[in-house]
Amino acid sequence: MAPVSEAVRSVTITPGTGNVRAFLKQIAADLATRSRRLVQALASRMELIILGWLIVFLSVAALKVTAAPTPIHNVRDLADLFLPYALAAFAPIAGYRLAMAAFPGGVLPAQPSFRFALYGRWRQVDPTHARSHAAFGPYGFMASLLIGMLLNIPVRSFEFLLAVPAMNSHAPLWGTTIFHVMAFDVIAMNFLYGVCFVMALRSVPLFPRMLLFAWMMDISLQLAIAQHVSASADLPRTVALALEGLLKSNVTKVLISAGLWIPYLLLSDRVNVTYRSRTRVA
């Protein structure tokens, strides 16, 4: 009876397993198709996104300036308040424009001469062959990373708007120091994430390294701000605690993002085909 039972069991399980695999493949194919459409729609509507971003952010920034706790007596006082917000608004656009000009579409960028991603067994393929591979392109799970980088710009920018009061030269030194260093942080990171977005979108081989550099720069800026501001002897304790919480939150978010995405950037077949022109050896 045992052999008959095993035979029946194998007949029963094998089709089910095949159906499950086919079902999962179909889901993966559907998700890949939807992500491709999403990325293509995003790329084709960037000009509208940029216009909407400028209108919304600068409008909120104008309200922030009018509600500033420091007085505005002349144009210089107004410029001291509004210029950091204007630079934060245009920084990601500058990064996007410069990266689009530096990495035109349809060009095959050269691969780096050395690799950081050494784990796994990979076979180098011709870049033209890689572009014809089914896994090529910033789609699938990579689309989530693209959208995440893009969303990081308004999230960090509006956190700055809400958390940091606008202060000009009439404020205490610690106030203008916090305002300027936090504005510089947002400006720099908005620019870098704008560049990273284009490099990912255009399948530039240096994208994973550029994203790693952006994460390292982000953490370095938070630590530098903490050290620089803590040197102010007259900094109120309540302000110091609030700033410490904001900087810790920023560092935590970067570390979580890096911890989630670095394994994917190293091991993903799509990432290796798209940005390293290599396929996994079975």
Shape: elongated
Strand arrangement, major sheet: 1-2
- Per DSSP, the total helix count is 9
Q: In total, how many domains does the architecture comprise?
A: 2
Number of strands: 2
Q: Helicity, in percent?
A: over 70%
Distance between the termini: 39 Å
Please state the structural category.
mainly alpha
Biggest sheet details: 2 strands, antiparallel
Strand share of the residues? under 5%
Element order: H for helix, E for strand: HHHEHHHHHHE
Radius of gyration: 24 Å
Poorly predicted runs: 1-15
Q: What is the arithmetic mean of pLDDT?
A: 86
Descriptive overview:
This protein folds into two domains: 1-44; 46-280, no CATH class. 75% of the residues lie in helices and 2% in strands. It contains nine helices and two strands, in the order H-H-H-E-H-H-H-H-H-H-E. It has helices spanning 2-44, 46-66, 75-102, 127-131, 141-163, 173-201, 207-230, 237-267, 269-276; strands at residues 122-124, 278-280. Helix 1 (2-44) crosses helix 5 (141-163), helix 3 packs parallel to helix 6 (173-201) and helix 7 packs antiparallel against helix 8 (237-267). The protein is elongated and about 70 Å long. The model is unreliable at 1-15 (pLDDT under 50).
Short summary:
This protein has 282 residues and is an all-alpha fold.
Descriptors for this entry?
two-stranded antiparallel sheet; disordered N terminus; 282 residues; elongated; mainly alpha; 2 strands; 9 helices
